Amino acid sequence: MRRLSLRLRLALVGALAVVGALAIASTALTALFAAHVQRRAEAELSVQLDQVVAGLGRGAGGALELQNPPADPRFDHPLSGLYWQIELDGAILRARSLWDHVLPLPPDDLRDGQVHIHSLPDQAGGSLLTLERSVTLTPSLGSQRVRAAVALTTADLKQARADFVRDLIPYNVILAIALILAGWVQLFFGLRPLAEVGKRVLEVRSGHQKRLGDGFPREVLPLANAVDALIDARDAELERARRRAGDLAHGFKTPLQALLGEADRLRKNDQTEAARAIEEIADAMRRHVDRELTRSRLAGGATTASSNVERIVQRIISVVSRTPLGAALTWDLKVPDALNVALDPNDLTEALGAVIENASHYAKERIEIRAIERGSSVEIEVQDDGPGIDENRIGELRKRGARVDESGHGLGFAISAEIAEAVGGRLTVVNTSPGLCVALHLPKPAGCFPAKWVGNCRAMRPKEFGINLKKIPYLG
């Protein structure tokens, strides 16, 4: 599973946090609104309860009755949801809105003037918010103690709460979108220094910059300094490794010269076989020394190097064609003049020179050299019309140190493969009909566009190029 980017993870966490915070805030606001609505309803019921108690009086027959009922018209409509009720001496006075229903007030011991709040069942299956009060009437009304109650259905309160939630949702959505977008903007500007670090790392990798440098915020500067310190340490280690390899290689030259001198002395003494054996050993050691010198020269080299393939091939052919073998051959060159590879001209000359020289030794009449652009790499093919290599022996070429002199090919391929691999390329050998095709697969310079678009791409912006890093066995 691919890991999410830091930007996307922070954005998702921020969005979830915004949604969660708004959900919590909405829940709290809804609860606060419901409590406020209930307090308002209780205050309204308290006023109406006062009006009910104040409206009691003696009727024509001397009985207590509600002579001045509350003015709210809902008290006069049956089952309207707003009711009043008075209990005195076992009798019950009630609003017309109760119809034939009686408020089921619970047994309650109330002090004079004390108000209790109850939730009673409604005849419609809901609940009623009920305020009751125990009142001792004035002497003119007989000093009786009555129990008065006013009730309001909670359906209206619930509907008000639902309406509030419905009205709140669009505003929450707009607020959530605004906050999430603000979070994205904050992430964009907040993570720009990290993007700048990545950009400078790519420039260092491509060779356009030596260090990340400064100019970063305080939070990012320690990372940039640490990377620069790591680059310094790597460069110092590479330099020490190159010096050690160079010292080792140069240290071998004197013993090799001594061996060759001994071989020459033996040859003068007619000990040809011994001289040939020593020369073969010295030649193998020299090739290994040259390989290590090439590797040490290429190690840690800048990737900004660029070579024009057509110019290098023409230079090599101009030299090889002056030899007796090269002069007798037909050279077929198919290389675009604007094609470049990410390799130093001297290194490309050495790598291609070994391959072309090998082909000139075993070609019969013709050598064809092609350069083909394939995506982010360039394939340089050198094909001769010679005897080729036994198919059963091609696999042996992939073994380090393998030689195929008896088949006619293989000398000089090792250093060519080393140079190609040093820049992320490879060398391949394929039998054709007739002859042999040796191909160098090399990367294009960083940020280079196809040759049909531009000719010189050294000044282009660096971009990563995907090269097959498959390990190529040493040939030769």
From TrEMBL:
<keyword id="KW-0472">Membrane</keyword>
<dbReference type="InterPro" id="IPR050428">
    <property type="entry name" value="TCS_sensor_his_kinase"/>
</dbReference>
<keyword id="KW-0597">Phosphoprotein</keyword>
<dbReference type="GO" id="GO:0005886">
    <property type="term" value="C:plasma membrane"/>
</dbReference>
<keyword id="KW-1133">Transmembrane helix</keyword>
<dbReference type="InterPro" id="IPR003594">
    <property type="entry name" value="HATPase_dom"/>
</dbReference>
<keyword id="KW-0418">Kinase</keyword>
<protein>
    <recommendedName>
        <fullName>histidine kinase</fullName>
        <ecNumber>2.7.13.3</ecNumber>
    </recommendedName>
</protein>
<dbReference type="InterPro" id="IPR003661">
    <property type="entry name" value="HisK_dim/P_dom"/>
</dbReference>
<keyword id="KW-0808">Transferase</keyword>
<dbReference type="InterPro" id="IPR004358">
    <property type="entry name" value="Sig_transdc_His_kin-like_C"/>
</dbReference>
<feature type="transmembrane region" description="Helical">
    <location>
        <begin position="168"/>
        <end position="191"/>
    </location>
</feature>
<dbReference type="GO" id="GO:0000155">
    <property type="term" value="F:phosphorelay sensor kinase activity"/>
</dbReference>
<dbReference type="InterPro" id="IPR005467">
    <property type="entry name" value="His_kinase_dom"/>
</dbReference>
<dbReference type="InterPro" id="IPR036890">
    <property type="entry name" value="HATPase_C_sf"/>
</dbReference>
<feature type="domain" description="Histidine kinase">
    <location>
        <begin position="247"/>
        <end position="446"/>
    </location>
</feature>
<keyword id="KW-0812">Transmembrane</keyword>
<dbReference type="InterPro" id="IPR036097">
    <property type="entry name" value="HisK_dim/P_sf"/>
</dbReference>
<dbReference type="Pfam" id="PF02518">
    <property type="entry name" value="HATPase_c"/>
</dbReference>
